[in-house]
Design a protein that fits this description.
mainly beta, five-stranded antiparallel sheet, five-stranded mixed beta barrel, about 45% strand
Length: about 140
């Protein structure tokens, strides 16, 4: 392509909602973290402790593919900033961690550390309150 010589109507998207094919035999619950598994053809699954995940956001509605094959259904996912459960003990996230990465424990919980490189990055810590952690997904 050549450089523009006149105005162009460039399409755009807000980038907050996307749809991904779901892994075989997987169930993703509404409100749970959704991750693409790089070890499984980048198919969507519920957030879990693994090192092969790219976390993409939170499920808009349940995606029940428990009896289905890979890519039989899709899950709608919202990126943006979402409130999740905080881990405990040495993995508890505090206000001092705002701006740092947090890590997937399960589909509703994030932690401060990767647990010696056993967890994938969930997103960026946006805020922390008494009820959990606000995580920014991109």
């Amino acid at each position: 392509m050549t450089a523009l010589l006149k105005d162009r109507a460039t399409k755009s998207r807000a980038g907050l909602r996307r749809s991904f094919p779901v892994a075989a035999a997987a169930t993703i619950f509404a409100g749970g973290m959704v991750a693409l598994d790089t070890g499984n053809s980048n198919l969507a699954e519920a957030g879990n402790t693994a090192t092969t995940l790219i976390t993409v956001g939170v499920a808009v509605a349940r995606a029940d593919n428990a009896a289905g094959g890979a890519s039989d259904i899709n899950v709608e996912v919202d990126a943006g900033i979402h409130h999740l459960a905080n881990s405990a003990g040495g993995d508890e996230i505090t206000a001092a961690d705002i701006g740092s990465s947090c890590y997937v424990v399960d589909d509703q919980t994030v932690a401060k550390t990767s647990a010696t490189s056993t967890r994938s990055v969930a997103g960026t810590i946006f805020d922390v309150d008494a009820n959990g952690v606000w995580v920014k997904f991109s």
